[in-house]
Amino acid sequence: MDLNRRTFVAAAAASPVLLGATSALASLAKAPTLKIAVIGCGGRGTGAMFNAINAGKQTGATIEVVALGDLFEERVTAANNALSENGMKAVSSTGLFVGFDAYRKVCATDCDIVILATPPGFRSIHFKEATEKGKHVFTEKPVAVDGPGVRRFIESAAMSRQKNLKVAAGTQRRHEQCYIDCIGRIHRGDIGKVIAGRVYWNMGSLWHVDAKAERSEVENQVRNWLYHAWLSGDHIVEQHVHQLDVVQWVMQADPLMVRGVGGRQSRTDGRFGHIFDHFGLEYVYPGDRFVFSMCRQQDGTDGKVEEVFHGVDGVATMRSGYAELTGPKAWKFSGRQTDPYTQEHINLQNAILKDLPLNEAEQVAKSSLVAIMGRMAAYGGKDVTWEQAMNSTEVLMPEAVEFGARPQAPVAIPGKPQA
What is the rounded CA–CA span in Å between residue 317 and residue 97? Predict the structure, then answer.
């Protein structure tokens, strides 16, 4: 019997068995589709886009990138070309947006998930727009550079929960199995009460983009955003937030206050904006507990990226791919784990497809504030409480930005009011 498509359908109509098979095949053919949009198409945004695509192979979702937005056209073009070069369907010209209002146009498309990967100063503004438009979000960290930005993000977080929107953050250690297993053991008491911690992100210098005379000062600063606190929050906020997020996770509380120091010893060149190159801070937590935090970006220095917590019965040590407890309940992670940069997208997609609880918005906002209050303490040379940081009226990032003049901020001098 020649069972072509027409005879197969006819036979199925006459046979309950074949009818059931037809329905099953139809179900298999209808893999769920998740439409992805990206705001911020630099290396971080493009990387997150491909993390989301790879996550679809694990969640069973068909991933379609439908919109790309960035302040600069060449980045949108590069991200779109990367899709084609990797065998993916490129975004049509109607889904490509450039300029300061690109985020609004991206959020107005029929995307399901928006990836937020611009310089951090823009994050709370973009998250508010995405939430108002009913989009699920993957947000890079940190999510603000000042107290007002944190408050805006937390307000939008409440709205996202009311709308049952799913939010995953780029604090990928929350999605890394060795961290999940280790901190689960800490919380069940395997090292006793945690009384102190030591966390580090020490490394050499990072990239920088030289200014060009034909660009406006705002464009030069945005292209070199890491070195301007209104865009990055300084490297303690932009980078060391990872360790401070782990502190929040372990301590299960917000810090009461922070004191510390910081400054510039190697970043004496004007190409590196006004941010510091090192910080050393002490965070005080409820229950007479404290955490020492150190971060630096100085060439020729020893590197260390790690979190250590001391309990009354043992010590926990964690870093990417590694976790160990010492003491009476000694343990060392030996399991397998998915790349956490992909796992966070797997978790987000599963939460959407299966309506599972996942909203990390307020959590990452508070971790961002922990880093911000550390910068405030080091810049000003004053102790800063949680309430002072949360209620701060200091605005580094304006809601409206356009190309033009913007003087470079002076380097902060502890003990002297900032201009």
Answer: 44
The confidence score (pLDDT) of residue 216 equals 97
Q: Whole-angstrom Cα distance, residue 127 to residue 120?
A: 11
- Angle, CA of 296, 299 and 302, to the nearest 5°: 65
319: β partners: 322
Q: What angle do CA 111, 114, 120 make, to 5 degrees?
A: 160
Q: Supply the CATH classification number for the domain 31-172.
A: 3.40.50.720
Give the residue from 155, 147, 150, 92 showing the smallest Cα distance to 129: 155
Domains of the chain: which residue ranges?
31-172, 174-338+360-390
> How far apart, in whole angstroms, are the C-alpha atoms of residue 86 and residue 83?
5
pLDDT digits (tens, 9 = 90+) for 175-211: 999 999 999 999 999 999 999 999 999 999 999 999 9
DSSP assigned state of 299: T
Q: Choose among 164, 143, 87, 131: nearest CA to 355.
A: 164
CATH class of segment(s) 174-338+360-390: alpha beta
Which amino acid type is present at position 142?
A: P
Q: What is the C-alpha to C-alpha distance for residues 341 and 147, in angstroms, rounded to an integer? A: 27
> 200: part of which helix (H) or strand (E)?
strand 194-203
Interval 399-408: pLDDT, tens: 899 999 999 8
H or E stretch including 402? none
* Pairwise CA distance, residues 329 & 350, whole Å: 34
Q: How far apart are CA 284 and CA 384, in angstroms?
A: 11
CA torsion angle 78 219 210 295 (round to 10): -90
Can 31-172 and 174-338+360-390 be said to share one CATH topology?
no
